[in-house]
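WARN retry 2 of 3 for item q-0093 after timeout on previous attempt; input resubmitted unchanged.
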Amino acid sequence: MSKLKINSFEEFARYEGTELGVSDYHTITQQQINRFADATLDHQWIHLDTERAKAESPFGNTIAHGYLTVSLLPYLWSQILTIENTKMQVNYGIENLRFNQPVPVDSRVRLRAKLLSLKDLRGITKAQLEVTLEIEGSKKPAFTGVITFLYHFND
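OK item q-0093 returned
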């Protein structure tokens, strides 16, 4: 499926109830995990201490922070769909987020997105998306949930 381009509420509404696509794979590196730990002040050893994680962790290696994987949503979402003719996009909410399994360092992940609903709130488009972060080679996703974006289209 090629990347979709949306210019209006009406164009977006055509896709309600359908899968919009899948992003490219992104590799989660130890450097990215370390930087996320520094940015969020979450320095738990299961994320940072490679030797200890190999010896003591049930995961056999360091793992990405769950919220690091969630923070990839805008980046991966932009690979699926381009919203043009907007003043701005706002992250509005996350519902029913479930971390189904950890993401080991050097895993490749990608986003699968389905447009659940689209509403016009007095000129602001509210898009609710079912999202799944898939881990290459794994039947279980890293997470599932519903995210909501608000789009302010130009008049």
